[in-house]
Write a structure and sequence with these properties.
Length: 69
């Protein structure tokens, strides 16, 4: 279900098709019908993709270590 796109400037990874819509609803905590024509539910944010604060700090530290050697 993953969709990968690359170009000369970078890389992006995400979901494709119907799965992309479902992933976005959960990632951002949006409202959606539970089933077509059914009741609407406000989904809580459930981050599927991204980095935690600790992961961002670890990446930053490793990059700094790498470029200062």
């Amino acid at each position: 279900f993953f969709k990968v796109e690359t170009d000369g400037n970078g890389l992006s990874i995400g979901f494709a098709g119907r799965i992309a819509r479902l992933a976005r609803i959960h990632q951002e905590g949006l409202q959606s019908e539970i089933e077509a024509g059914g009741p609407v539910y406000q989904y809580p944010v459930r981050q599927l993709l991204g980095f935690s604060q600790a992961e961002r700090e670890m990446i930053r530290d490793k990059l700094l270590d790498h470029i200062t050697k």
